[in-house]
Write a structure and sequence with these properties.
The chain is mainly α. It has helices at 18-25, 28-39, 44-53, 58-63, 79-103, 109-126, 146-149; strands at 4-7, 12-15. It is built from seven helices and two strands.
């Protein structure tokens, strides 16, 4: 019987030769099935934009069904559907902004590293002076940005000290 070609988009198989494959891949049914497959992964903001630019389908509004189905060039969304989609897009946008705000809570890594370096040079040259910029926003000088804490296996020099400070073990045998 020979080799058979199976199309995942159309859920069909047929004898595999150049003519049959080309005919199938250029066919309307295959293009519709492929478009429907990729539409599953579209961003809701893109769907909202497309639906807002389309005019409402008169046949769908009158009878509740359209002969063209998802391939109709007019919108099949009601006002309530559009409102819900707008709300979903807004919620997704808010979640993305909140995630960015959690990652960047006010200071960037570059700012933190430059302040840390300034403090170290000030301490090494002038003794135990504190930099005025370190106490900004009431944050502790050892406050490590959240971006760094999420990195696994952070070097010890970048880890913040524990709340009680480093525990020093004094060995009395050597004294």
């Amino acid at each position: 019987m020979g080799k058979r070609y199976y199309c995942d988009y159309c859920d069909r198989s047929f004898q595999d030769n150049m003519h049959n494959r080309k005919k199938h891949l250029n066919g309307v049914q295959h293009h519709r099935a492929k478009k429907a497959w990729y539409d599953h992964f579209r961003d809701s903001s893109a769907i909202l934009y497309d639906e807002q630019t389309k005019k409402p389908c008169r046949k769908f509004l009158q009878k509740g069904i359209c002969d063209f189905g998802p391939n109709c060039r007019f919108s099949h969304m009601s006002e309530a559907d559009l409102f819900n989609l707008k709300r979903q897009v807004e919620d997704e946008r808010q979640l993305r902004e909140d995630a960015v705000d959690r990652i960047m809570p006010g200071r960037s890594i570059e700012e933190w590293l430059s302040r840390r370096e300034k403090k170290r040079t000030a301490l090494s040259t002038k003794g135990d002076l504190k930099d005025k910029g370190d106490s900004e926003d009431g944050q502790a000088e050892s406050d490590v940005p959240q971006q760094l804490l999420s990195i696994p296996d952070l070097p010890p020099s970048l880890l913040p000290p524990p709340p009680g400070g480093w525990k020093v073990k004094v060995d009395t045998e050597w004294g």
